[in-house]
Amino acid sequence: MNRPLSVGAAGMATQSAVLDNIAANLANVDVPGYRVSRTEFAAFISPDGRVVAPQNGGEHRLFTQGRLDATNNLNDLAIDGEGFFIVLPSGGGRAYTRAGNFTPDGAGGLRLPNGAELEGVRLPRGSVSFSVDDHGKVLAQVAGRKGDVGVGRISLATFANPSALDLRADGLFYRTRDAGQTLTAPAGAPYGAIKQRYLERANVTVVAAMMALLAAQRAYEANAKVVQAADEMLRLANNLERG
Q1: Interval 22-56: pLDDT, tens
Q2: Is 74 exposed, middle or buried (0-12, 13-18, 19+ CB in 10 A)?
Q3: What is residue 101's DSSP assignment?
Q4: Which residues, listed in sequence order, are joined to residue 140 by a DSSP beta bridge?
Q5: pTM for this structure?
Q6: Are 120 and 86 in contact, with CB atoms under 8 Å apart?
Q7: What is the separation of C-alpha 116 from the centre of its chain, rounded to a whole number of angstroms?
């Protein structure tokens, strides 16, 4: 195959993957706790040592802190730090998330919109309100009872390599071998403090994403011109041969 043609086509495929990734990040900009991803590439080296084309090295998820927005909703919780909420998915097992848009269910649990339940908290029947301090201690106010009732404590999890966590279709992270062991501790030091009536927004910087989008679009156009030029050279060579 004509080398400029193949390299130009590989460059177009690379920038197409970058554009898809940026679009996915922007589409999730309002999803609580969403972690931005970055597409990574490695150069493909031919046996003679020449760079032929980049290879897609997959996505690398970034776990920088997102913006904490006050919501005045007592069910909303945010983590100011590096930890993850530990939740129990409807399918069983454990999963991890930065999203904190919980809602009490009929059994006293706090659940995410996808049905996963926050581990370690159970509100008693008749609870009219509850409070969570920075260290994850949960106190409920129960109708007909004086004083606050301790109903659990929120623990947070962390991993040596969170970028290796498996993000599944339910929006939750699951541990993998490459992520390392699950380390847990009560909220507070060292994994982060709990902020009630706050939500952590996606850590997507819209301006930076738009700049990257423009750069990827320009790079795609440049590679398309390489393909066009290579095709034109082949056409000219074919015409000369026939002549």
Answers
A1: 999 999 999 999 999 988 887 766 666 666 667 66
A2: middle
A3: B
A4: 130, 149
A5: 0.82
A6: yes
A7: 17
